[in-house]
Amino acid sequence: MQPQPVEPSQWRFDAQAWPSEGDVVASGGDLEPSTVIDAYRNGAFPMPHDGVLLWWSPVHRGVLKPGRVHLSRSLRRSIRRFAFTYDTDFAAVIDACADRSRPGGWIDDEMRAAYVRLHDLGWAHSVETRDGEGNLVGGLYGLQVGRLFAGESMFHHQRDASKAALAELAAIQPDGLIDVQWSTPHLATLGVTEITRDDYLARITELRDQPAPTWPPSSHKAQRVPVQH
After folding, report:
1. CA gap 71, 91 in Å, rounded
2. 10 within a domain of the structure (yes/no)
3. pLDDT tens per residue, range 194-210
4. Does residue 202 sit in helix, strand or coil?
5. Domain around 191
6. Residue 7 resides in a domain
7. How many degrees, rounded to 5, is the angle at CA 218 between CA 102 and CA 128?
């Protein structure tokens, strides 16, 4: 599905006006599709905190360059056990990511509704990891803006299921960049690195207006993950 056009945002995301220190760059606004898309196009993303809608642009941004994915031997074995679907169960993926029993849960009802709407408009996508019986055991979701995939959240109910989803995502983003917001030790094992905010903003300026990659059919077995040896 090609993303549907949206009306111009009434809000302006101007990186020149952002504070040089701290990851929060703005507050307030709304979660209309045009606002969220414009934020991503300019290097910010929404995340509520204590009931306030905040907009973040990390000083140190976690990114994954698809051609530099690291796969351990155990993860390779896990990937062979999984199959993947795309955009067939977006609501279930975001609901699993929003599970309030998870530490640091931040996806509230408004955020969920905003991203489901973006999915319906063709901007938000999910990668779903399934076991041999077709059960949803992991996955991720995020926004596709040109050649930038801005990852929002991921989950797993089986070991390596979220890592497998991220590796699979990298396979269908061969010429782009995957934004994971912040790097973690968990993500670093896959090859996620940190770049400065300025480097990130410069990079997405080149990517956001390029044609988006074609997402695969709904079902696909992982046989083609690019690996750095």
Report:
1. 28
2. no
3. 999 999 999 999 999 99
4. helix
5. 61-220
6. no
7. 15
Whole-structure pTM value: 0.92
pLDDT tens digits along 105-156: 789 999 999 999 999 999 999 999 999 999 999 999 999 999 999 999 999 9
Residues 6+ apart with CB under 8 A from 29: 11, 35, 46, 53, 55
Which is nearest to 6 in space by CA: 40, 45, 57, 48?
40
- Based on the domain organization, do 109 and 202 belong to the same domain? yes
* Residues 23 and 106 grouped into a single domain: no
| Straight-line distance from the first to the last Cα atom of the chain, in angstroms, rounded to the nearest whole number | 34
Length of the chain: 229
State whether 44 and 154 are in the same domain: no
Which of 93, 103, 63, 100 is CA-nearest to residue 161?
A: 93
Phi then psi for residue 82, to 5 deg, are -105, 160
